[in-house]
Amino acid sequence: MAKILVVDDSALSRRVSRRILEGAGHSVADVPDGLAALERYALDKPDLVLLDVTMTEMNGLEVLRQLRVMDPGAVVVMATADVQTSTRELADAGGASGFVPKPLAADAVLRAVAAALGRQGAAQ
Fold it and tell me: What CA–CA distance (Å, rounded) separates 92 from 68?
């Protein structure tokens, strides 16, 4: 199973994500903001990052951009309640490997994670 970093400023969303992902056998670490995400990513090199789009200080699209600079092969699935097409297009253009809507549903999260990890495995 994969090592996953959950980045979300909502403690409730982090708990829900952790419960879903750990329930599927993944190893999960979580952080509440973008700066902590960049630091944790550099230390842990997770297989996948589940990244909230809307956060204070540094939004998820900026975190995505910086992760891709640090590691062009970073696998990032964006999570957001913002269902605007423009947000998804920005995430896709930034190199996101997937997109999952909030509120998080277990089947949607696990499908997006499996698809993103499958693409990563296919590229290697």
Answer: 12
